C-alpha cells in the first residue's frame, strides 16, 4: 500500500504566492518503507518540507499515464529534470519541479496494479540540494488506493488555493475538473491514451495520425487484451498505429478468440516471475518431465493441459509488426485449438523460435480471458510472466543449476553455459538468466521479473 500524509504550514518567506500558500510537510510510505526518509546535515527525518502545488500539478498533468503506462525496458535513475527522459517526466516525482527536494520515486502501471521504484541519493552527487533521500526499494500496490490518495492531495491543494486567481492554478483546476468528470464512455479512450503516454485532453499535441487511429477503435476494441498489448509495446507510437491494422485483420481472418475455459491452479503467486515459474512447473509435473530432462515436443504441453495441441503458423503480414517489437499473435480458434502466429522465422535461430512459442503457450493456456494476445518486448506484468514461464518450461532453473555445476567440473567454466544451453535447446542468455534466478531465488526479486 502507498500512503501519503501531508499538512500545510505557514511560510511567509516564499516569494511565490502559490508556493507560500501550499507550503507543507509531506511523508510518503510504500509497503511499510518511508520513501521520504532524508538525511539533512547531521539529522535524519521521515518527512520533507516542500510546496505541494507542484506535486498536485504533476499528478493532474500525468494522471492517466501514471495509472496506466508501463515502465520502459530500462527504467534507469533520475537525477533532475535536465537529464530526465519524456517517460521519467511523466512518472518520476522528482521531475515535478526543479529546485525542490523530492524523492527519486517512479510510479507506473504493472498489470492490474501499480509499481513504485525509488532510488536513494548517492552522497555528494547532488551538492546543491540540502537533503539526501536515504532509502531505496520497490513495491507493487493497489491502483484504486493510489488514485484515491492522489485525488485527495489534489483536492486539498486546490481547496487551499480557492481564492487564488493565479493562471497556473486555474489551468490545473480546469484540467482536474475534466479528469474527475470523465464520462464512462470516455474512460477507455483516456486509459488507452495513458498507456502510450499521451494526455487525452490535449489531443492537439498528439503525433499526426494517432487521433484518427484512436477514434477508429470501438469501445469493444479497447477492451481487447491484444489492443492493450499493442499499446503497451515498447516501440514508437507511430509503429504501433501502423501495426494495428495488419494485426486486427489477422485476428479477424483467423477468427481468433478467447480461451474457452481458462483453468488456473489455486493459490498462485502474485509476482510475474513466480507466476510464470509456478505454471511451467505445473505443466512439467503433469507431463512427468524431470528438471534435468529436455522438453522437445512443446505440443505435449498444450495437449496435456488444454486437451488441444497448439499450431504454429508463419504469417508474412507479421514482418513489419515484428520489426516494431511485436513477436507474435496468440489466440484460440473457437474450441478447436490454440494458434500461435509468428512472422516467417527461417532466418531466426531454432532456439529463439522455441522460446517464442513457449511464451505464446503461456498466453494460450493461462492469459486468454479477454481475447487474443500479443507476444511483445514489453516489461509489463503478463509479458514478464510469459518470459519466466517459457524459461522454466524449457530449462528449469533447478535442472540448469545442477547441470551447470556438473559441466563446470567436466568441461570448465567457459564452456559450461553453452553446454547446458545445447542440452535444453535454448539460447545461452536463457541459461544465464536461470542461473541468476536460481542464485537469487531466496532473496526476493529476480532477473526474470
Description:
It is built from 19 helices and 15 strands. The chain is an alpha+beta fold. It folds into three domains: 2-178, no CATH class; 183-243, no CATH class; 256-440, no CATH class. The strands form four sheets. Strands 11, 12, 13, 14 and 15 form a five-stranded mixed β-sheet that branches. A hairpin with a 2-residue loop joins strand 4 and strand 5.
Query: Per DSSP, what share of the residues sits in E-state strands of 2 or more residues?
Result: 15-25%
- Low-confidence blocks of residues: 442-449
The oligomeric status of these chains comes to single chain
Residues in helix, %: 40-55%
Number of helices: 19
Shape: globular
Structural class computed from helices and strand pairing: alpha+beta
Amino- and carboxy-terminal Cα gap: 20 Å
Q: What is the rounded Rg?
A: 24 Å
What kind of sheet is the major sheet? 5 strands, mixed
Average pLDDT reading: 87
Q: Count every beta strand, where a strand is a DSSP E run of 2 or more residues.
A: 15
User: Structurally, how many domains make up the residues?
Assistant: 3
Please give a quick description of this structure.
The chain is an alpha+beta fold and 449 residues long. Helices cover 45% and strands 16% of the residues. The longest helix has 18 residues, at 143-160.
